[in-house]
Amino acid sequence: MEPFKVSFLGPKASFSHQAAVEAFGASAQLTPCLSFADTFAAVQQGQSDYAIIPVENSSNGSVVQNLDLLADRNEIYGDVEVCAEHYLTVHHCFMVRKGVSSTYSSITKLYTHPQAWGQCEAFLSKNFKGVERQDVSSTSKAAEIVSKETTECSGAIASRFAAEYHGVDVLEENIEDRADNTTRFLILRNVHSERSARLTFEPTSTALKTLILFTVDHDSPGALADALSVFKDHGLNLTSINTRPSQRRAWQYVFFVECARVPTPQNQEAVTRVLQSLPQVTESCKYLGTWKDEF
Amino acid sequence: MEPFKVSFLGPKASFSHQAAVEAFGASAQLTPCLSFADTFAAVQQGQSDYAIIPVENSSNGSVVQNLDLLADRNEIYGDVEVCAEHYLTVHHCFMVRKGVSSTYSSITKLYTHPQAWGQCEAFLSKNFKGVERQDVSSTSKAAEIVSKETTECSGAIASRFAAEYHGVDVLEENIEDRADNTTRFLILRNVHSERSARLTFEPTSTALKTLILFTVDHDSPGALADALSVFKDHGLNLTSINTRPSQRRAWQYVFFVECARVPTPQNQEAVTRVLQSLPQVTESCKYLGTWKDEF
């Protein structure tokens, strides 16, 4: 069989790229996209077997652009479903151009993505107090910039993955403040695809997660509690709730409910039953997929 | 009595400033702050009677910086509580320097906050296709820039409030794509303040909203559903749920639950009872205030 085609948000050597390599291996055909919407479109249109998208970071919270794409308010990604998740531990390194004999004191300019400054505050204030900082659009871009520097005065903060991709020298690893900084990715497939993996719903010892979206009538008291009770009544544990504006009416929300169950012969139909019951207490609801809990 | 002191995120003529004027009137002493954290600190330290902060926009969703400040993970705003809410309808205008006889075709440069471009797409593509756009840090700043322009070729998108503050001419009003684009502000006070208003909990015909935060053990199945049931069991309707990373452990969340009740003699103690029951099913919980529903 041809290698799997996998879309991710570029540029190459981004954290999404690294997650794609970890999840699919180097033999997959990995394609950087210009936007998250393009990764969804690639799956919907069958150009990719899978897309891998970040949905939340353990420090920063939800990636709302991807929640909005999953909500699919314009109904253009109707065949996209979630089939797996992948956790990527975010480690930052300090790097300089290959072969440069830099000491920290010779560095006069630093490059990285704005979010990375905040994640490496202790390292930066210890070693680079007052040094000029240049924001760039991705940590991978920062590594690329120092790889092409003609002076010996520039340093970048990026992943080891980006350092190796761009061929720069890592002077220090794990410079992040929090060792447990982790991003959770979801893996998307097309429900009609015959190539991409389908989950089999036989009982396993691993918990299964399911993502269901719904909207409730804002003016109907108790509707949200009633909708959440449906999950509990059928033995599904809520593991995550997110909300986004419905963008149809002000103050109406789309709820993203993730629930989990350890499969047993008794609860095989639990998701089906939830989906049968929800329409009685919600305005709309939508099943977005079931996958193995990798937490 | 001296006028109330109210803190808001500046600059002057920002949407927060407009919300403060609408909520407190022009006689209040309104103080722009450099950050949302500064508005919280002003209330905590008693420099301001109130702060007014945006918490959600009907199109864009939550203002996560303010949710994080309400979560108060470092326990530095322990005396800050929510005492009211205010809804501000967001209208945009197109404006030029006072007295300039501009036609749209003579405009060669536009200024506004990045979010406003996206909110006025129809107007911009109809009238200013291909015209240079300059991002600025606030819509108020955009109005200020054109007020000082020496050429006649610049236009700004900002509120009528900002146009009047900076003395520029509005050429067109309500240029936003969605007429119902609204931001909800919360008003903060210090629980020890004797000047700022306290709610009286006598039954009224208006619904009361209450904000309660809690964390649950991620590994305890059903804990979230159990916590949410507590609200329902005591007759409180869930009107909003938000989550943010706890930033203590990865994948542990702070839940922000807003609930509402029309006060009756029977449910006067509902919030007290919820706060008595929640500790049995949560790791931690915190009451953040009760106020009149203005929706």
Automatic annotation (TrEMBL), chains A, B:
Where in the numbering of this chain does the Prephenate dehydratase domain appear?
5-190
- Extract one GO molecular function annotation from the record: prephenate dehydratase activity
Q: Where is the ACT domain?
A: 212-292
Gene Ontology cellular component annotations, sorted alphabetically: cytoplasm
Q: Which organism is it from?
A: Aspergillus cristatus (Chinese Fuzhuan brick tea-fermentation fungus)
EC number(s) on file: 4.2.1.51
Where in this chain does the entry annotate a coiled-coil region? Answer: none
Keyword Lyase attributed? yes
**What domain of life?**
Eukaryota
Instruction: Give UniProt keywords alphabetically.
Output: Amino-acid biosynthesis, Aromatic amino acid biosynthesis, Lyase, Phenylalanine biosynthesis
Q: What is the lineage of its organism?
A: Eukaryota, Fungi, Dikarya, Ascomycota, Pezizomycotina
Pathway assignment: Amino-acid biosynthesis; L-phenylalanine biosynthesis; phenylpyruvate from prephenate: step 1/1
Name under which the protein is recorded: prephenate dehydratase
Q: Give the UniProt record's GO annotations in the biological process aspect.
A: L-phenylalanine biosynthetic process
Q: Which PANTHER family does its entry note?
A: PREPHENATE DEHYDRATASE P PROTEIN, PREPHENATE DEHYDRATASE-RELATED
Q: What class of enzyme is it?
A: lyase
